[in-house]
Amino acid sequence: MTIRPGRIAVHIALILYTILALGPIFLILINAFKTRRAIFADPLGLPNGQTWTTIGFDRVFANSDFGLYFFNSLTVTVVSLVLIVLIGAMAAWALTEYRFRGNTLLSLYLAIGIMVPIRLGSVSILRMMVELNLVNTLTALILVYVAQGLPLAILILGEFIQQIPKDLRDAARCDGVSEYRIFFSIILPLISPAIATVAVFTMVPVWNDLWFPLILAPGDGKQTITLGVQQFIGQYVTDWNAVLASLTLAIAPVLVLYLLFSRYLVRGLTAGAVK
Amino acid sequence: MAEVSLHGVAKSFGATEILRDINLSVDDGEFVVFVGPSGCGKSTLLRIIAGLETVSGGEIRIGSQRVNELPPADRKIAMVFQSYALYPHMNVYKNMAFGLKFAKTDKAEADRRVRQAAEILKLTPLLDRKPRELSGGQRQRVAIGRAIVRNPSVFLFDEPLSNLDAALRVNTRLEIAKLHRDLGATMIYVTHDQVEAMTLASKIVVLNQGRIEQVGAPLELYRSPRNLFVAGFIGSPRMNFIKGQVLRVSEEQAIIGFAGTEAAVDVRPGSVKPGDHVTVGIRPEHMEVEGAGSAPLRGTIDAVEQLGESSYVYMRLASGDDVIVRAPGETEATPGGTYTAHVPSRALHVFDAAGLSVLPERS
């Protein structure tokens, strides 16, 4: 196999971008294991015998409810993700498969959801949550994130569902398969690459979000991990060891979930369905 | 086992009429082929029978039951799609068993049926394969197998052979014919290929622009097409059409003048009168190279196609009409030369200005 110059150029660009993207993460990781003095003296240096310490982690576990924050973040992310994928896929199926009055209007309405950032509505969302008595609950966060993630999920999944040959659904209907079964046994397995894409796109912003946890659930032990980290950042003193240690811990689960989903990202499943 | 009947079936998408006033009855165990050019509504008609499309009017009956309101699964039909429509994430066995699972078929019984269908279609060694690991012909057989296991009263085929290559198409055509003999089920088959229609059908339904042009046994359509469309559609190469005029009419015969010659043809009494403009049709295979007492057609040769056992001579008559003649395999005709073909008057078809045949009904 010969390697064309064009390919080399593409790969150089990709490698540069990867370094750029991974740089900050790498910095967090190495500095999380260094003493405070070493962090400021040599921010780019790797931890060695003299500078190695895990004091940041010790302090995170001793001085904060890290486990609780972590659990809160995980609950919010996983529940939002499941709801977005399930409701999104069902809505996308309904909008692409069935012709009904208001179909186009509904699709347009959802498209607006992609264009208008949900944070513009923060004040009314907070007011609504207060009235519903949902302030300082994870439910409030989940509801907001589901609303935030649905429009894009429906758009992406709808595109994929449209690519599934119509004959497949008709064949299943002739086989006597109910509409729900067609959705769960045929449509869902076939759009799993799209679901992985949607999952990754949805999961990362939800896990990393600081805005809504800050205004909707800042207390009562309902803080998420991003909010939990803030307690180490003070107006006068910042405990960098603890901040970097908790950030390191916060990266781990996203990474694991990403690796899980990325296996499906590029896989096409429709091969062999129709000629 | 069941017969299928359609009464005044109509279908329109918005303002576009796809089918109008379709009346048809299919007997139990019959092999009916819907044939017509693309866009004639034949696939839509099949999907209406399957229950995948609703009708805008009329009634569909399968067996003795009105099925207009029934979903496809309750119509005792099974459909084979042009694209095969196999479930890509299931292996061959599951593809065939999938429908049975929801028909509440007993597990052992379902297994028996799948294995039996696999046996009939020689799919047994492939049961664990995914569709993407199969060839086109094998996928087609799985699609047919999926229909067989449902044990339907009516099989519906939507252009099942059009994705196969020529050799495989002939083979599969024979297999489908054999399947029909073995199962004895009613089959309705859609195709645009008139060879498939002629070889498979016990009854052909010719459709054009959403209307049934003619229904009949293959040879009946070949011998006595009711109108210009059917005459042109059935038979290959296509029937030659030449403009002509009625010269004289006696009781049951008319003398038709065409392309500088004339011939006496039996007609239905009163169907034509002298001076009428008509279209004369002659099949290429019915022209004779030597013929005493039949009308001669002379023209210049445009092209000659030699097929071995016969050759097709394309010629242009002095009247400007293009005509194809089937000549013997070894012909001396060469492009640019002149050629004479003879038309026996018993092989002539005559159509009036509205395109309807004026020949007497043949039994």
Can you give a write-up of this model?
The complex is a heterodimer of chains A (275) and B (363). Chain A is an all-alpha fold and 275 residues long. Helices cover 73% and strands 0% of the residues of chain A. Chain A is built from 13 helices and no strands. The longest helix of chain A is centred in the first third of the chain and has 32 residues, at 66-97. Chain A is globular. The relative contact order of chain A is 0.14. Chain B is an alpha+beta fold and 363 residues long. Chain B is 23% helix and 34% strand. Chain B is built from eight helices and 19 strands. Chain B has helices at 42-50, 92-102, 107-120, 136-149, 166-183, 194-200, 218-223, 228-233; strands at residues 4-13, 16-26, 31-35, 57-62, 65-66, 77-80, 154-158, 186-191, 203-208, 211-216, 240-249, 253-258, 261-266, 277-282, 295-306, 310-317, 322-328, 338-343, 349-351. In chain B, a hairpin with a 2-residue loop joins strand 9 (203-208) and strand 10. In chain B, helix 2 packs across helix 3 (107-120), helix 2 runs parallel beside helix 4 (136-149) and helix 3 packs across helix 4. Chain B is elongated.
Quick tags:
heterodimer; A: 275 residues; mainly alpha; 13 helices; B: 363 residues; alpha+beta; six-stranded mixed β-sheet; five-stranded antiparallel β-sheet; 19 strands; elongated
